[in-house]
Amino acid sequence: MAMTMHVDIVSAEESIFSGTVEELYAPGEMGELGIFPRHTQLVTRLKPGEVRVKREGQSELELYFVSGGILEVQPHVVTVLADTAVRAKDLDEAAALEAKKQAEEALADKKADFDYAKAQTELAEAVAQLRTIQKIRKQGGQ
Fold first, then answer.
1. From CA 67, how far away is CA 107, in angstroms rounded?
2. 72 & 98 share domain
């Protein structure tokens, strides 16, 4: 029997996932993090991207999209506090493409009241969503 840990993925609106897992991967600000049971304690910021979890006894990884947030790791409990969290299979590709297009247009058409940081953040989030959607397609739709 493999070692496990409890994982909670929550957003401001709802709890997206709560369960026992063998491993978790998350998009840390400085690069991807791999978390396993009894990992050293850690608190770090997350960038937009996918969080992958391997449930106890399963071979496939489940995908969740987060728009950023905080990852807290305790020896037996991991919490992902996301600004926005969505099951990857529930992502809307058309909406992500539209958001990417609008952010790119905003970056190209700079005005005096332009919020460059906001447009960059929106673009990064849309691109991360599209990458997650493409990954799901490659895996066969999960």
1. 19
2. no
Average pLDDT, the chain: 82
Q: pTM of the predicted model, to two decimals?
A: 0.68
The residue range of the domain holding 73 is 5-88
Angle value at C-alpha 51, between 127 and 43, nearest 5 degrees = 110
Checking if the pLDDT of 131 tops 90, the result is no
How far apart (Å, rounded) are the C-alpha atoms in residues 97 and 102?
A: 9
State the Cα torsion 106-111-115-121 to the nearest 10°.
20
Q: Looking at 70, 88, 106, which one is the last position of a domain? A: 88
The total number of structural domains that make up the chain: 2
Q: Cβ contacts of residue 26 below 8 Å, gap of 6+?
A: 32, 33, 35, 46, 49, 51, 52, 66, 71, 80
